[in-house]
Amino acid sequence: MDLVCHSPKLVHRSSLTRHKQEIKESKDLTKIEQIYKDLVPTAPESKEVCKVTFPDGKIIELPILLGTLGPPMIDVRNLYGKSGYFTFDPGFTNTGSCVSQITYIDGEKGELLYRGYKIQDIAENCDFIETCYLLLYGELPSVEDKKKFDDEIKHEMLVHDKLISFYKGFQSGAHPMAILVGVVGALSSFMYDGLDIEDPIQREYAAIKLIAKMPMIAAISFRTAMGLPIIYPRNDLTYTENFLYMMFADPMDKDWQVDKLLADVLDKILILHADHEQNASTATVRIAGSSLANPFACIAAGIASLWGPMHGGANEAVLNMLDEIQIKENIPSTIDLIKDKKFRLMGFGHRVYKNFDPRAGIMRTLCHKVLKHIGSEDDQFLELSMELEKCALEDKYFVDRKLYPNVDYYSGIVLKAIGIPKDMFTVIFALARSIGWISQWREMISEKMIKIGRPRQLYVGQKERKFMNIADRKDNFKELTSIFKVKKGKKGFTIYNP
Ligand code: CMC
Questions:
Q1: Which overall architecture, per CATH, does domain 48-98 show?
Q2: Which of 231, 285, 314, 393 would be a feasible disulfide site paired with 408, CB 3.0-4.6 Å?
């Protein structure tokens, strides 16, 4: 498909209104409409059914759906109507929630495809901007398309000056992820009036704005936490160089240079994290978006979901774990504690990958490359993590459960070696994943039959019972009253500690 970047006229527009105007005037409108149409996934027609027999002997037929890749799915959309039963699947371990044509994972083979291309090929031959283009538009850009897209992103990189005021409200030393959730949510107040998510052009505009502004938003989160002055992006730097520049540049040092190799490695890290089909944070963005909420508010919800140590917070947790293990001699006792379920081996295991995570292998190579570049090949964390990985992979507990290192096992070590502070690791994951989140949000909204996300539950609480007046109720919760902090009988004022 020849993807002209929607019209050269679109580059360097100054407002959404102008943008809409220009798109309307564009001669390429039909072509653009066709591109948008191709990006809308549709559920396939069912050619086969399966039969389900219920305890009362009733048999119903359910359609089977076949995608282009991956296991077939049983279409249970009409199950309740036909049978009076719901399905029970906490954590959606077996449940498809959407049709998508963005990313595919084969967990058994350890394969990850972005729009059909292997992650290894993308990581080796593309940069993050090309990856964003691919995820957003479905095709890799030509030289000209890439240039236009890159210009477009650069043009949108600066954040509104008012948004910067938000950072002043955070505690010094606040976790940058806490700041990120708040500030990205606040973006919705800058892009609310006039944002019509029914309009594909405006959805695209929102996507470009998000990708463009994330490096500056992420970098200011760090500089706020550190009490450092804000640095603004530069036109002569690439996307990833700009992020490193805004993170680390010293405004007093006019000769400050971005280390090209480290920027290149970080760019690969962004590619590896760009999308991962229906993971917790992406599913969160989709569910939030299914109510037709503002896209930036949906992305903030995704960031919140990503923060946890079971998901994107694992990269920070891996380094905390290695910090605690300290020396190789402590590995056997650590593994014993993990097998006793006292805690989990962070950076290990994955819901989908049951062979290996292809991103982890690339990450390990990047790790060696960075450590060699900075002259720390004997890095104690790398040695410790390699030994821990070896011990775990030889242990029956991990073998039986098919637990392998995931992308986060080595990413923390690479990021640390680049000089990224530990509490920024998940922020970088969020920066990278923003393209995945917004592409998935855009795909979902583009479908005409969007359904609000609304799971069912298996209720195991009280059946309906008779209401009791307060005077008749028993004093059931004496033990719990210790959590109420109000001191009874004390005279004078006490200082309330919020
Ligand atoms: N360490 C020790 N045991 C584990 C681990 C682990 N990292 N992961 C899973 N298990 C065990 C778990 O205790 C269970 O054992 P049993 O069958 O005896 O009850 C079994 O393996 C299956 O675990 P599960 O919780 O049902 O697996 P899941 O698919 O629901 O969880 C996971 C996937 C990634 C949340 C989990 O493997 C985990 O907590 N890993 C550590 C955190 C981590 O590295 N997260 C980053 C994931 S990759 C980046 C991303 O995409 O977010």
A1: Single Sheet (2.20)
A2: 314
Q: What separation in Å is there between the alpha carbon of 289 and the centre of ligand 1?
A: 27
Domain ranges across the chain: 48-98, 124-472
Give every CB contact of residue 398 below 8 A, 6+ residues apart in sequence. 345, 348, 392, 404
Q: Which of 36, 434, 25, 435 is nearest to 198 (CA)?
A: 36
For a ligand 1 pocket test, name from 344, 351, 397 the mutation site with the most ligand atoms within 8 angstroms of its C-beta.
344
- Asked if 350 is an active-site residue, the reply is yes
Q: Are 289 and 295 in contact (CB under 8 A)?
A: yes
Q: What are phi and psi of 50, to 5 degrees?
A: -120, 160
Q: Which residue has the tokens 């910067």?
A: 164
Chain position carrying tokens 């001699």: 329
For residue 180 and ligand 1, the question of a CB distance below 6 A is answered with: no
> Hey, whose CA ends up nearest to atom 25 of ligand 1?
351
Of residues 350, 357, 379, 423, which has the active-site annotation? 350
- CATH 3.40.980.10, applies to 124-472: no
pTM over 0.85: yes
Token reading at 169: 């409200």
CB within 8 Å of 366: residues ≥ 6 apart: 265, 268, 269, 410, 414
Ligand 1 lined by 115 (C-beta under 6 Å): no
pLDDT along the chain (498 residues), means of 10: 36 43 58 82 94 96 97 97 96 95 95 98 98 97 96 95 91 89 93 82 93 97 87 96 96 93 97 97 98 96 97 93 94 96 94 91 92 83 90 96 92 90 95 98 90 96 96 76 60 69
| Both tokens assigned to 151 | 């210009």
Which of 40, 83, 80 lies closest to 60 in space, CA to CA? Answer: 83
Q: Which of 212, 251, 244 is nearest to 228 (CA)?
A: 251
409 CA: nearest ligand 1 atom: 44
State if residue 349 touches ligand 1 by the CB under 6 angstroms criterion. Answer: yes
Candidate from 119, 331, 339, 406 with most ligand 1 atoms within 8 A of CB, to mutate: 406
Question: For position 184, what pLDDT does the model report?
Answer: 96
